[in-house]
Specification:
The protein is of the alpha+beta class. It has 4 helices and 6 strands; from the N terminus they run H-E-H-H-E-E-H-E-E-E. Helix 2 packs across helix 3. The longest helix is centred in the N-terminal third of the chain and has 22 residues.
């Protein structure tokens, strides 16, 4: 048998997941704590394709939201900053390189 404390915790978690799913069913609203992938990519200064690759390879929660993707905002920022700090750039080259996402360009450096 499951203890009443564990049951209450699971019941609260299920209620939170139901609210998140209900919010995702609306076309205009993203769930709380999530942001559109295109917005996060523009904020970080990278392409949406590389942002999607970054999210998938670094283990950030990524979900299909309508015709686009939504990512967990705080975890994506954290993963992106780690990637950008570890990226290398050759002298006078416009390309950056990190083993996790490969070669990419940054239009601007993200604010820390």
């Amino acid at each position: 048998m499951i203890s009443p404390i564990k049951f209450n915790e699971l019941e609260k978690r299920v209620a939170a997941l139901e609210l998140a799913l209900a919010a995702m069913s609306w076309k205009d609203a993203c769930p709380e704590g999530m942001a559109p992938l295109t917005t996060m990519a523009a904020e970080m200064g990278i392409s949406t394709k590389k942002a999607e690759e970054l999210a998938r390879n670094s283990g950030v929660l990524i979900v299909r939201h309508g015709a686009s993707y939504a990512v967990h905002e705080a975890k994506f920022r954290e993963a992106a900053l780690i990637i950008f700090k570890g990226a290398k750039r050759q002298c006078r080259s416009k390309y950056w390189y990190h083993p996790l996402i490969g070669k990419f360009t940054m239009t601007r450096r993200p604010q820390l």
